[in-house]
Amino acid sequence: MIAALTTLALAQAAQPRLDPRTAIYELRIYHAAPGKLDALSARFRGHTLKLFERHGMTNVAYWVEQPNEKSPGGRVVYVLAYPSREAREKAWAAFGADPEWRAVAAASEANGKLVERVESIFMTQADYSPPIRLVR
């Protein structure tokens, strides 16, 4: 346990400080499968956010759109931040290979996929944007 905490602390200390003015922001939209929005939110709440942080992703904000005519399953919309696109690619590769994530994903999808479709948009902060405060 102590070794795992030490490894995590060292990994976090080694991560570059994120400058909100130069960060790469990723807007991700998860279209939930019908009837799976609560399970998807539970997976984010209980596991995904901490795993993102473990792999160097900065959680900026999350929103939930309830099911409606245009989105029958509802959607989870969120923003992550990274120091660069290269850092983003490395973080997602590590996240996808993480045994804890694989176990969580398999368990949460035992009764079917939670997500039908994912959209991803990459952004940088506009020079006229109010300041963003990123907390890690």
From TrEMBL:
NIPSNAP domain mapped to chain residues? 25-130
Spans through the membrane = none
Entry superkingdom: Bacteria
Mind telling me which InterPro entries this protein's record contains?
Answer: Dimeric_a/b-barrel, NIPSNAP
The record ties this protein, via Pfam families, to: NIPSNAP
Its recorded name reads NIPSNAP domain-containing protein
